């Protein structure tokens, strides 16, 4: 598919990135995980001490991010920040617990908005996130919006994290997902909301293969 932009938004752990990767392969378009960029800023802010147990030092984050250069490798899905590979670090429990508080800061969103648009400007892409179809690429060729029951999402994410060697309980995962959904939907700047022209997919009772087939059928049918 030539230069198409495919926007995949939705709630935490609904299977957006897995589906987005498969679509990107199938359509021969680059893939960008926009959540990884928000996680990258959060990781850096924790490491630099701009986030502590008691405070989020917004001024330090604002000054610090102006120097950042992200690269998301579409094939390996590796994220580098100023050439340093932080692919694994951004999935940690600590990063997950702060990322939505960082992602609601207007200057963080504005900064990443520019970077995200640049990534899609030349060859088209498949990008997943929270505001891709509403704010980053409102003119996207195809928009999908993913939902699923929280308990099912938590179970899937818990299994995924266990397989990756993270030791944490199901209830912790569920709480993190619900906390992030709340902050993401209630924030002032580009909140998580379905675009009017997005196709909604509830993946609660669907396998990845079924979701993939639904999306491909919609794309082919247009
Ligand atoms: O994979 P998962 O659904 O758990 O989340 P993610 O895509 O890695 O995104 C992590 C967090 O980044 C979200 O909970 C949002 O707070 C934020 N995010 C955002 O605000 N806007 C985006 N386009 C992507 C992520």
List keywords for this structure.
single chain, 222 residues, alpha/beta, Rossmann fold, five-stranded parallel β-sheet, three-stranded antiparallel β-sheet, 9 helices, 50% helix, 14% strand, binds cytidine-5'-diphosphate
CATH superfamily: P-loop containing nucleotide triphosphate hydrolases
The largest sheet, given as strand count, sense and whether it forms a barrel, is: 5 strands, parallel
Morphology? globular
* Ligand types: cytidine-5'-diphosphate
Mean pLDDT: 94
Number of helices: 9
For the record, the CATH class is: Alpha Beta
Q: Tell me the quaternary state.
A: single chain
The arrangement of helices and strands along the chain is: EHEHHEEEHHEHEHHEH
- Unreliable sequence segments: none
- For the biggest β-sheet, the strand order reads 2-6-1-7-8
Q: Which range best describes the helical content: under 10%, 10-25%, 25-40%, 40-55%, 55-70% or over 70%?
A: 40-55%
What fraction of the residues are assigned to beta strands by DSSP?
5-15%
CATH architecture: 3-Layer(aba) Sandwich
Class from secondary-structure proportions: alpha/beta
* Count of separate structural domains: 1
How far is the first residue's CA from the last residue's CA? 13 Å
What is the CATH fold-level name?
Rossmann fold
Q: Provide the gyration radius in Å.
A: 17 Å
Compute the number of strand runs: 8
